[in-house]
Amino acid sequence: MKHYHYIFTGTGLAALMTLYEMIRSGKFEDKNILLLDENPKQTNDRTWCFWDENKTFDTIVSKTWDTAYFKNEDFERTLILKPYQYKMVKGLDFYRLIFDLIAKQKNIRFIQQKVVDFQELGDHCVVKTETESYSCNQIFNSVFNPQKVNNQSKYPLLQQHFVGWFIKSKEAVFNSERATFMDFSVAQKGNTRFMYVLPTSATEALLEYTLFSKELLPKEEYEIEIKNYLQKLGATNYELLEKEQGSIPMSCYPFWNQNTKNILNIGSAGGWTKASTGYTFANTVKKSKALVQFLTTETDFRKFHKTTKFWFYDLLLLDILDKKNALGSSIFSAIFQKGNPTVIFKFLDEETSFWEDLHVIWRCPKGLFIKAFLQRMLRFRF
Predict the structure, then answer these.
(1) Which domain holds residue 336?
(2) Residues 6+ positions from 10 with CB-CB distance below 8 Å
């Protein structure tokens, strides 16, 4: 059984980002590292977006926008993002960047195998795949286990689920300088439903029909809504270039309680996804940097996590949407209708002071959140 210092079970965004930061630090060249995943990461299976005021991964950013668009059935608003830009990274571009870097490292190995089990055995860990077993000092696990969340009722679990179409239209129907952040003018049907549009030119865009809800839809329902939306825009003659589909867990469940001294859950498996929005990229950049810094001084993974005020804010929103899923449009609309865009995006990026928090929170439906706060306090107590 071959032994490694670190094994990554799964090579999703969190694993690859953490490995990227480990390589950049130059402090892990004496550590043997293994990545295990059944997926070779050779297709463009997803698109990540994030707002940023620096040059984060600019070499692989395929499109940027300086303005964003918000709409519901009653109003629409163009949001000036300065000092931020909204940026798009294609999954395949990110994979190529990281795997090209990995190929240059003598101490890192990727094996295309499916992980079926892993466990901590005293001072070492064992990882089993369908064909082999490996031992290591410590594991970074990004294999999400929904049973841990489904088997409890204290913390709600929603999904950000979507189907996306990359299309090229004969008609010039898109504003390539503006990303549609949320368009709630689509029928809500008792849920939180919106269109998300990332135009790369006047005739090309990624459109995603997105829900924040408990249950997924039949694939045809997402696609019917995309077709209807395109028709409303005036795109009647278009070519479907690519499709993507995803479901991101939205929960404030304390995944970090499952961490052990030598096994750390990362990514969605570790609660790294922004629970109230499903955004993953920016959060993962921050978490991976913090983790690599942690590794230079600590060895006990149980010490890594720190809960912040934003975890509690997200929990209150999920408590509301769990019970009354149709209220999502009114909550997000209240925030975006007159709020300062810079402060809103800073808040969603978990960078605001308490007084800036109040700027955003005060615009939310107060009765809903006061009730949710009181109910949550009772759930914590009993």
Answers:
(1) 309-381
(2) 36, 37, 115, 141, 142, 143, 267, 269
Q: Are 115 and 129 in contact (CB under 8 A)?
A: yes
Residue 164 lies in a domain: yes
What's the mean per-residue pLDDT of the chain? 95
CB 51 within 8 A of CB 86: yes
Tell me whether residue 74 is in a domain.
no
Q: What is the pLDDT of residues 299-336, one digit of tens each?
A: 999 999 999 999 999 999 999 999 999 999 999 999 99
pLDDT digits (tens, 9 = 90+) for 76-105: 999 999 999 999 999 999 999 999 999 999
Structural domains counted in the chain: 3
Is the same domain home to 32 and 101? yes
Residues 231 and 263 in one domain: no
CB 81 within 8 A of CB 68: yes
- Asked whether residue 109 is assigned to any structural domain, the reply reads yes
At 208, list the tokens.
Answer: 């995603």
Q: How is residue 302 annotated by DSSP?
A: G
CATH number at residue 138: 3.50.50.60
pLDDT at residue 382 greater than cutoff 60: no
Q: What is the pLDDT of residue 50?
A: 93
CA distances from 134 to 32, 34, 88, 107 (A): 12, 9, 37, 16
The residue whose two tokens read 């299309």 is 167
147-159 per-residue burial string, b: 16 or more CB within 10 A, e: under 16? ebbeeeeebbbbb
Q: Is the pTM of this model over 0.90?
A: yes
69, 174 Cβ separation under 8 angstroms: no
DSSP 177-208: TEEEEEETTS--TTSEEEEEEEESSSSEEEEE
Quick one: pLDDT band at residue 147, thresholds 50, 70, 90?
confident
- What is the rounded CA–CA span in Å between residue 382 and residue 373? 15
User: What is the pLDDT averaged over residues 239-261?
Assistant: 94
